Amino acid sequence: MIGKRYGGSVTRWGSTNQHSKDVGGFAGDPHTWWLGVDMVYDATANRGDGSHPFMPRSCPACSEEGLKCIHEHGHDHYQPADFPAGPVTTYGGLTS
Fold first, then answer.
1. What residue spans define the domains of the chain?
2. pLDDT tens digits, residue range 27-58?
3. Which residues partner with 40 through β-bridges?
4. d(CA 57, CA 9)
5. Is 10 within 8 Å of 38 (Cβ atoms)?
6. For residue 8, what pLDDT band results from cuts at 50, 70 and 90?
7. Any residues with CB less than 8 A from the CB of 69 and at least 6 apart, and which?
8. Residues 33, 91: contact at Cβ < 8 Å?
9. CA distance 65 to 67
10. What is the 3-class SS of 16-75, one letter each residue?
11. Is the pTM of this model over 0.85?
């Protein structure tokens, strides 16, 4: 619903560990769990009016629906609010 609400388009969702590393991420990042989404918007690369922190900060003002929003260069990254920082090997009772 966030994308629909704000005129967003998904540019990246899930990926392999290797692809995540190839594009500047890391093995075990939220994309490798199919729980990370990168989004751009029709009006601008990042959502918001510029009055709150941008890249690469987690933005409480833009985090909603149980998702953490992180403003990155050229897009916003969304992931579950409780997803741990850094490489993750266990999450939600699952092991990668």
1. 2-95
2. 999 999 999 999 999 988 888 766 666 666 78
3. 9
4. 20
5. yes
6. very high
7. 47, 58, 59, 62, 63, 76, 77, 78
8. yes
9. 5
10. CHHHHHHCCCCCCCHHHHCCCEEEEECCCCCCCCCCCCCCCEECCCCCECCEEEEEECCE
11. yes
